[in-house]
Amino acid sequence: MEIVIKIELRREWCKGCNLCVQICPKAVFDRESKISARGFKEIIVKQPEKCSGCQLCEMLCPDLAITVSKTTESSEIK
């Protein structure tokens, strides 16, 4: 069994506070290089494969814009 970690970032809820970028121990998040139509540099999930599933980003996001979920997948081919 392999653990699969999925990060969902609800961009419409995100206000670009940058907490997830600063707190992530694996540097999963980053900011866009340009200012968006919403008036700030939007957050992106840049390296999802590096996520350890610690959920610090989810717990600290003031807008509840991040969800980290873990599932198990069988590595067997059926």
Automatic annotation (TrEMBL):
PROSITE patterns: 4FE4S_FER_1, 4FE4S_FER_2. InterPro entries: 4Fe4S_Fe-S-bd (IPR017896), 4Fe4S_Fe_S_CS (IPR017900). PANTHER family: FERREDOXIN SUBUNIT OF PYRUVATE:FLAVODOXIN OXIDOREDUCTASE-RELATED (PTHR43122), IRON-SULFUR-BINDING PROTEIN (PTHR43122:SF1). Residues 5-34, 41-71 form the 4Fe-4S ferredoxin-type domain. GO terms for molecular function: iron-sulfur cluster binding; metal ion binding. Keywords: Iron, Iron-sulfur, Metal-binding. This is 4Fe-4S dicluster domain-containing protein. The keyword Cytoplasm does not apply. The keyword Membrane does not apply.
